[in-house]
Design goal:
Belongs to the multicopper oxidase family. GO terms for molecular function: copper ion binding; ferroxidase activity. This protein has eleven helices and 30 strands. The chain has 642 residues and is of the alpha+beta class. It starts with a helix and ends in a 29-residue tail after the last helix. Bound molecules: 2-acetamido-2-deoxy-beta-D-glucopyranose (12 copies) and copper (II) ion.
Length: 642
């Protein structure tokens, strides 16, 4: 047999084995009580909840017909962690890789998963919508078998849960009466979409638990009374076993762990989840900080009380995880992208998030449509807009992202289309007076690991930095953003336009893709401003709010908030619903804005500033505001755990 026919026989065999998995989904609202405390509308799939697990083998095709029956919201689905090689149009990001699907319409996702295995998930990528329930797990089985032995496998999701819907929460979050950008405080932590959950186990068995944080905000600590986790994979990358008592899992991260059960079945054990309280602005008195679920050996035996870890217990630091298939540290980068994370107010008084001074603002034409319609100009990042933070990457170049966190909170960053190497992650600089950017903390002697950890979602510590590297070998339009949905809504994102010519050459957009945009009335040609004549003319593009006028100070914002509390009718509700509960609220806001009380007290022209900022400042109506006032991670009741 000739070599070529031999090869094609092998190819045929593998094609014959690949399956196509069809799903026909309708997203709609139902009233459900997930935590057993409050019923509220939740986004269901074909009337059911939770959303089904997608379970396929590597090499299989997934076809999902998604019908939007939400009535009042546009929608989309992103498949978190899936590379989407040569099919970036299936990545599900509104205004980058597709148009949203409006109510009453359907859209079909259709993609293959060629070279990935492990624990993933999918979720709406529209406006924080997945926090209302539109999310599910996505498991890709390895045709070669899992590299570690186990007897049984179980998926476990964790997330925070709000009693209010994302839309009203967003209205009060992105609001001038929340000038410090305090995120809404969740009411509970869910364990597999419920509270006080039970996991019935058999003795002397090894379980593979696929833990997936499908939340939109808080990181969680996880531990089980008298049991250990053996970590064997993170974010779809197998690792050498690492045993730990405690895990720390940010939203969007996945940990596969092995748990060996005891021989003795007389006792049940507490399966604990803890809020990362550093991420909450205030800790409401009635918040259950550590939620208890149960690992059940004997249903007739008593359920345990909550089980707390000793102070000083350390969670596993994912930086040190060693991939089972090691990949050498990539060479020195061809392209370094340095960005500073900043949270700040713009001229409308609202608190936004920035990379440098840009708060991501979606283009008028999906970036992928710009790639296809721009011809040679697709290589020039100018055409993707001045306010989208789009960066063109050359085919196969080594890219390093140096991310400096000028904020006092932690942020989990996610890169679409890749896993990256974790080259360096700086320590917490919480007690420093200001941020400590990469290269300024005297760590010149730092030696990167020879075989770095790889994952798709990585947190940066307060006022610190990280460095990640990847090879630009996946032509596509890829979002890089904070996975805290509140921060994404504030604009904490950049866009990587990877090898645009390669996209043009090897990828296409099908009719359904264009019809989806037609249904939304969105243009599918032109630059970010929708200009099809001159791709370098961005007149009319979407841009962020104007900066605060020069000379306007933070105290002006505070003054505005308090002048509002003092009198204007629409604001009185704020006082009663939220701020009234907070002791020393003025002091806390001032601390947060690095102000001294004299700044506020001596300020006699505050109304002028107010007027300059926005003549209509007092006319807005606000329905409710969260019970918190300082920005993430900067409250006084910190609990530092590392
Ligand atoms: C998908 O479900 C909808 C609503 O249940 C139905 O009308 C439609 O025919 C189904 N499509 C397919 C391809 O089965
Ligand atoms: C879980 O326990 C809490 C506290 O006892 C209770 O309020 C809640 O209803 C329970 N939830 C579920 C889903 O059982
Ligand atoms: C859905 O998209 C349409 C068209 O772009 C837009 O007018 C509308 O505001 C969007 N709806 C929501 C709830 O964002
Ligand atoms: C999915 O894509 C494949 C490959 O392009 C195509 O053959 C198939 O018809 C598509 N399926 C649907 C339902 O669109
Ligand atoms: C979590 O829920 C899924 C179904 O939604 C179930 O298959 C799985 O076994 C549950 N996990 C645990 C640990 O109970
Ligand atoms: C549990 O029981 C099995 C056989 O039933 C035995 O091989 C094993 O050593 C026991 N493990 C422990 C920790 O006692
Ligand atoms: C939650 O658990 C942590 C770790 O065990 C402990 O430090 C903290 O005090 C607990 N919180 C409460 C309210 O019990
Ligand atoms: C396990 O993790 C610890 C830090 O949490 C690290 O020091 C150690 O090198 C890791 N070992 C392996 C084999 O991953
Ligand atoms: C962001 O600002 C830094 C200086 O603070 C600069 O070095 C860097 O190039 C800027 N990044 C981008 C993407 O413009
Ligand atoms: C971030 O902080 C560093 C150190 O204080 C400062 O040099 C830099 O300008 C800040 N970046 C932005 C965009 O404000
Ligand atoms: C991109 O286009 C702008 C505007 O025409 C031009 O100034 C710039 O030099 C171009 N950049 C590259 C890399 O060609
Ligand atoms: C994309 O398709 C082209 C042409 O078939 C192929 O050469 C290339 O390797 C593919 N790229 C990826 C990342 O799979
Ligand atoms: Cu963030």
């Amino acid at each position: 047999m000739k070599l070529s026919s031999c090869l094609s026989a092998v190819f045929m065999a593998s094609v014959a084995l690949a399956e196509t998995h069809y799903y026909n989904w309708t997203a709609a609202w139902s009233n459900l009580n997930l935590d057993g405390v409050k019923e509220r509308p939740v986004i269901t799939c074909n009337g059911e909840f939770p959303w089904p697990e997608i379970r396929i083998k590597r090499g299989d095709r997934v076809v999902i017909q998604l019908h939007n029956d939400l009535g009042d919201q546009n929608t989309s689905i992103h498949f978190h962690g899936i590379f989407q090689h040569n099919q970036t149009s299936q990545d599900g990001v509104p205004m980058l890789t597709q148009c949203e699907t409006p109510p009453g319409y359907s859209y079909t996702y259709n993609f293959t998963v060629e070279d990935q295995v492990g624990s993933f998930w999918y979720h709406s990528h529209s406006k924080g919508q997945y926090m209302d329930g539109m999310r599910g797990t996505f498991i890709i089985e390895d045709p070669d078998g899992y590299p570690y032995d186990y007897d049984e496998e179980v998926t476990l999701t964790i997330s925070e849960w709000y009693h209010e819907l994302v839309t009203p929460l967003t209205q009060s979050f992105l609001n001038r009466y929340n000038p410090t950008g305090a995120e809404p405080i969740p009411q509970n932590l869910l364990w597999n979409n419920t509270m006080n959950g039970t996991w019935t186990v058999e003795p002397d068995k090894t379980y593979l638990l696929r833990i997936i944080n499908i939340g939109g905000f808080v990181s969680q600590y996880l531990w089980i009374q008298d049991h250990e986790f053996e970590v064997v994979a993170v974010d779809g990358v197998y690792v050498e076993k690492n045993v730990t008592e405690e895990l720390y899992i940010t939203v969007a991260q996945r940990y596969d762990v092995l748990i060996h059960t005891k021989n003795d079945t007389s006792t049940n054990y507490a399966f604990m989840q803890g809020f990362d309280l550093d991420m909450l602005d205030t800790t409401p008195k009635d918040l259950i900080q550590n939620a208890t679920s149960y690992m059940v050996y004997d249903e007739n035996a008593d359920m345990p009380d909550e089980y707390l870890l000793e102070d000083g217990t350390e969670y596993l630091d994912d930086f040190y995880l060693v991939p089972l298939t090691p990949e050498k540290l990539l060479p020195e980068p061809d392209h370094v992208i340095t960005v500073d994370v900043v949270m700040d107010n713009l001229g409308n008084g609202i608190n936004y998030a920035f990379f440098n001074r840009t708060s991501y603002t979606a283009p008028k034409v999906p970036a992928l449509a710009s790639v296809f319609s721009a011809g040679d100009a697709a290589d020039n990042q100018t055409i993707y807009g001045s306010n989208t933070d789009s960066i063109v990457l050359q085919k196969d170049e080594i890219v390093e992202i140096v991310l400096n966190n000028n904020d006092t909170g932690k942020h989990p960053f996610h890169l679409h289309g890749h896993v990256f190497q974790v080259v360096e992650r700086g320590p917490t600089y919480f007690d420093e007076p200001g941020p400590v950017p990469y290269g300024t903390d005297g760590s010149e002697d730092y030696v990167a690991p020879d075989y770095p950890a790889r994952r798709d979602t990585l947190y940066v510590r307060p006022q610190s930095y990280f460095r990640i590297r990847f090879k630009a070998d996946n032509p596509g339009v890829w979002f890089f953003h904070c996975h805290i949905e509140w921060h994404l809504l504030q604009g904490l994102a950049i866009v990587l336009i990877e090898d645009p010519k390669g996209i043009q050459e090897f990828q296409t957009l099908d009719d359904a893709w264009y019809e989806n945009c037609d249904a939304m009335g969105i243009q599918t040609e032109g630059n970010a401003a929708g200009n099809t004549e001159d791709y370098y003319d961005l007149k009319g593009e979407n841009v962020q709010e104007k900066e605060l006028p020069a000379g306007f100070t933070a105290r002006g914002i505070v003054a505005m908030v308090f002048s509002c509390i003092a009198g204007v009718i629409g604001c009185i509700t704020i006082f009663f619903y939220g701020m009234a509960d907070i002791p020393n609220i003025e002091q806390r806001v001032m601390d947060d804005l690095h102000m001294e009380s004299k700044d506020l007290l001596n300020d006699d022209d505050e109304d002028d500033e107010l007027d300059r900022m926005d003549p209509a400042a007092d006319s807005d109506k606000v329905d409710n505001v969260k019970e918190n006032t300082s920005s993430q991670g900067s409250s006084n009741d910190q609990k530092l755990r590392h």
